[in-house]
Amino acid sequence: MAELARLDAGSARRGVAAGLVAGAGGALMIAANDVAGGAGLVLAVLGGVGVVMAAVLWRASAGHVVLTEQGLFDHAGTCLAKLAEIDAVTAAPFAFKPSNGFTLMLNTPQTRLWVPGLYWRYGRRLGIGGVPAGQAARAMAERIAALIAQRQVLDQTT
Length: 158
What we know:
By secondary structure, the protein is of the alpha+beta class. It has two domains: 3-60; 64-157, PH-domain like. It has helices at residues 11-32, 38-60, 134-157; strands at 3-8, 64-68, 71-74, 79-82, 86-90, 102-115, 119-128. The two termini are 25 Å apart. The mean pLDDT is 88.
């Protein structure tokens, strides 16, 4: 399985992302001290969730996404989308997509997946991006678009 493109996040980007989420969680926990009753409890719980999510984000963003001739796979070998299942790539600035990333439209609904900072899959949409660098994500999106165009040309000639 030849690797055509790889998308991963540098430790600085991972640190900033996890730090921002942890900071927001910490701020909510501090604010919970000034609020009495149920609202204070809600803020404390939300702050705790933020701190836990920062740890989850840090661990999850250590992985990567790989494009091969068969499709997109994560660092654990999970198939995110087979190349034959991808209908379109959306990487426009104002499109519904992860930051620094792109969205793939799939031809069949898939099970839900989510790795914070790297990708999410919901129904017929697969969002790739978040923590990785935008330039690397654009390069991968362009490579996928070229493979889709090549597949469509081959389908028309047969």
